[in-house]
Design brief:
542 residues; alpha/beta; Rossmann fold; Nucleotidyltransferase, domain 5; 8-stranded mixed β-sheet
């Protein structure tokens, strides 16, 4: 066998040095244009290259370097390890050709020294297989329509590209190729979202969900993950959602949004790349595409977000992290330290007075505790004791007892269908009972002296609720007590009207969203009670 050149020997030996994966890739490989790989302009890539997790998912916008990322990672593993076996699977032959011809072979065309080191007389370089001089092999297989071509290949390292177009059953078959390598197997999944229920989204949600989080240099607050909150047709730059100051995309950091999951996941959004432009003469900037492309396509390909139901608002894990150790308070024994502190209650009426009907009126209490809004108690009035013609009176009596037990300063109620019951409650509790009513515009919350209620912008204020949730600005009782209520939050999603370019919140199926709406009323109520927002709360909607 022809002896390795020093170039490839050094690459193999680099596995035993202190060089990181990113440093190895930067030293031995090139950009598509033949230049040096740059982690100053692409800081988000360094951590990804250095992640040696055995299960990784990359969800990416189009044209953000995903294919190059995969190609360089595959090459690094093939050339730096003797006798390695790698299976690279994609949805179509065209996608395989792009990786093999435009990305992998391109590295050898730009670097003759690497090519001489990687190939010898016993090497193979054809459409479906590359065998290098160190006897490492990369197999290229299309498994989008049929999976038979990948059967029988034993490979501990398996890469799935454009995984959103590959049936889950085919993925399971291919993963079986690594079954005999239990201690060394590694799986990489990559692609661009097509919708909310596609394979890639399901895989990504089952990871630690790394998102590129940028701290604002002006207000010093962390922004939420890059998404539609950073899109404004009047602001052609990456801005802080809190104070609208410009952000430097390079100053972000990866933050796990599902930290207890051992699987690695990264979302690469078009807004975090140096190629991002907001307006261009070719009308292909971020805002140009936002105005001209179908919204689903814009979400998937430009923002790197799933569509169908809009953005993923929040995960179950994130909500569970907001549950503390304390149980739900016993309303018959409310501690004096709770009674003596300013608090508000929120009520949503939902009576069914038919015999055998069930009431789903709901009440929740909230108070400001340092830098979080604490929810000590919530109740949904359901069950036979609240059914039938006497149900409304029983609920009204119990609500009055609860408000007195907590000694709440204000009670905020949805005006809507509950206006009659709000007036009954006001007769019992006086002017501390205040009505709120949603409006569909963008005007901040205001008092309407004619209707004698607060008018609040539904979409904007619910946006703030989800922002507060993601930033852990709420504290709920322990998980076992509170799980039925945070399910109401998971039942909400955003729906986009492409014709009118408007976004609204809607409820999923027959599930309830009552607690989420009450959380909104209580959040606004606390703001109104103190007369100003806490320092961490955006004032734009309030």
């Amino acid at each position: 066998m022809i002896r390795f050149t020093s170039y490839l020997s050094n690459l193999i030996k680099s596995n035993r040095t202190k060089l990181t994966n990113a440093e190895k890739i930067q030293k031995y490989f090139r950009t598509q244009e033949g230049g040096r790989l740059d982690f100053i302009e692409h800081p988000y890539l360094e951590a990804i290259y250095n992640d040696d997790s055995r299960y990784m998912v990359f969800s990416a916008s189009r044209q953000v370097g995903k294919s190059t990322l995969l190609a360089l990672d595959v090459l690094k593993r093939a050339l730096s390890t003797r006798n390695e076996s790698i299976l690279f699977a994609s949805a179509s032959e065209a996608q395989l050709s792009e990786i093999q011809d435009d990305k992998i072979r391109r590295q050898f065309d730009m670097n003759p020294q690497l090519k001489r080191a990687a190939f010898n007389s016993r090497s193979v370089d054809n459409k479906g297989k590359m065998i290098f001089s160190n006897q490492s092999t990369i197999y290229f297989k299309s498994i989008g329509k049929q999976v038979s071509s990948a059967r029988g290949i034993a490979a501990p390292q398996i890469y799935f590209d454009e995984v959103q177009s590959i049936p889950r059953a085919h993925i399971s078959v291919v993963r079986a190729s690594a079954r005999t390598f239990k201690d060394t197997s590694r799986f990489i999944f990559a692609g661009t979202f097509l919708g909310e229920e596609n394979t890639l989204n399901q895989l990504y949600l089952d990871t630690n969900q790394n998102e590129w989080i940028i701290t604002c240099p002006e207000c010093h607050q962390d922004n939420p993950k890059l998404g539609m909150a950073h899109i404004d047709k009047d602001l052609p730059f990456l801005f802080c959602v809190h104070c609208k100051a410009p952000l430097d995309r390079k100053l972000g950091r990866w933050v796990k949004h599902n930290p207890d999951n051992p699987k690695s996941g990264y979302r690469i959004c078009g807004l975090m790349t140096p190629e991002c432009t907001w307006r261009s003469k070719a009308h292909d900037g971020i805002l140009d595409l936002y105005e001209s492309e179908p919204f689903d396509k814009f979400l998937n390909e430009t923002m790197g977000l799933p569509s169908v139901k809009g953005v993923n608002l929040i995960t179950r894990t994130e909500l569970e992290d907001l549950c503390g150790d304390e149980p739900m308070l016993d309303p018959t024994n409310v501690p004096p330290n709770i009674q003596q502190r300013p608090s508000v209650a929120g009520i949503d009426w939902a009576f069914n007075t038919d015999e055998g009907g069930v009431s789903h009126t709901m009440i929740t209490f909230a108070l400001l505790e340092r830098d979080v809004i604490k929810i000590p108690y919530t109740k949904r009035f359901s069950g036979p004791e609240y059914s039938g013609p006497q149900g409304p009176d029983k609920v009204l009596d119990e609500i009055c007892l609860l408000v007195k037990a907590f000694q709440s300063d204000f009670v905020f109620c949805d005006k809507g269908l509950g206006h009659k019951d709000n007036m009954r409650l006001q007769l019992r509790l006086g002017q501390k009972v205040q009505e709120m009513q949603y409006h569909g515009g963008s005007k901040p919350t205001y008092w309407d002296p004619i209707d004698r209620c607060y008018k609040i912008p539904k979409t904007l204020t619910l946006d703030q609720v989800f922002l507060n949730l993601r930033e852990q600005r709420y504290l709920f009782p322990r998980k076992d007590d509170f799980e039925p209520y945070y399910e109401d939050i998971l039942n909400l999603y955003t729906k986009y009207d492409e014709d009118h370019r408007t976004r609204t919140y809607v409820k999923s199926g027959k599930g309830s969203d009552d607690f989420c709406q009450l959380l909104n009323l209580c959040t606004i109520g606390i703001l109104r009670m103190f007369g100003y927002p806490p320092t961490w709360m955006s004032q734009s909607s309030y």
